[in-house]
Amino acid sequence: MKSLMQQALGADWEKLPPALQAHYRFGTNTDSGHMDIHYPGYLQPLLSTLRLLGALVNRRGSRIDTVVEKEVVGERQYWRRTVTYPDGRVIRFDSFWVAAGAGEVIEFVNPVLGLQMAPYVRGERLHYRGVRYVARLGPLLLPIPEWLMLGHATIVEEAVDDTRFAMDFRLTHPLLGEVFRYAGEFETASRGS
C-alpha cells in the first residue's frame, strides 16, 4: 500500500533519499531524535491558548528529546509526538493526516482545525508549502486566513545520511515575521506495516 506522502508526491516519491522514504513509508514507525523550539516571548499567551486546542508546543528549548510515533488507521495517518524536556516535563502533540486531493494533505490538530499543505521535492529535499488553514464543519472545509492564525507554514526536510533526516518547520506571519520554528534531527525505526 502507498502512504499518504507517496500518494501526494506521485512519481517524485522515487526522488526522496532512503531516510525520508523510511520516515513516510506506509505502516507503523517511530522517529527518535531531538528538536529546538523557538518563538518570541510575547506570543506565549497565544501559544498557550492554541495548545489548549491541540496545536503546536508552548514551551521553548534546545536539543529537546522527541519521539514521533506514526500509525495508519483506515485513511488517516496518526502522528503522536512526545517532547521531553531536560527538567522531565513532557508535552504531547498529536495530530492526524488525511489526503486532500491534487497532491496535498491536511494535518488536523483536533477534529476541526487543520493545515492544508502541498509537499514537493526539489533536489533531494522534501518541501511543504502551506496552502491554507481550514476548519472542518461536517463535510465542509472552511478556509481560515493565515493572518488570523500564526502565518504561512513552510517545512523543509533533508537526509543527513541513509537513516537520519533533518527537518525545519517555520511559521511566518505577514506582519510579525517568523513567529514559530521547530527544527531537529531524527532517525526512523520501522515497527512493521
Furnish the topology, listing elements before pairings.
Elements: H1 4-9, H2 18-24, E1 29-38, H3 44-52, E2 61-73, E3 76-84, E4 90-101, E5 104-108, E6 113-122, E7 125-137, E8 140-144, E9 152-159, E10 164-173, E11 177-190
InterPro entries: DUF4166 (IPR025311)
Domain DUF4166: 16-186
Protein name: DUF4166 domain-containing protein
Description:
With 193 residues, this protein is mainly beta. 11% of the residues lie in helices and 56% in strands. The chain contains three helices and eleven strands; from the N terminus they run ααβαββββββββββ. A ten-stranded antiparallel beta barrel has the order 1-2-3-4-5-6-7-9-10-11. Strand 10 (164-173) and strand 11 form a beta hairpin. The relative contact order is 0.21. The model has no long low-confidence stretch (mean pLDDT 95). It holds the Pfam family DUF4166. Residues 16-186 form the DUF4166 domain.
- Ends apart, CA distance between termini: 9 Å
How would you characterize the largest beta sheet?
10 strands, antiparallel, barrel
Sequence stretches where pLDDT stays below 50 over 5 or more residues: none
**Portion in helices:** 10-25%
User: By helix and strand content, what is the structural category?
Assistant: mainly beta
Number of helices: 3
What portion of the residues fall into strands of 2 or more residues? over 45%
Entry keywords:
single chain, 193 residues, mainly beta, 11% helix, globular, DUF4166, DUF4166 domain-containing protein
Brief account:
The chain is mainly beta and 193 residues long.
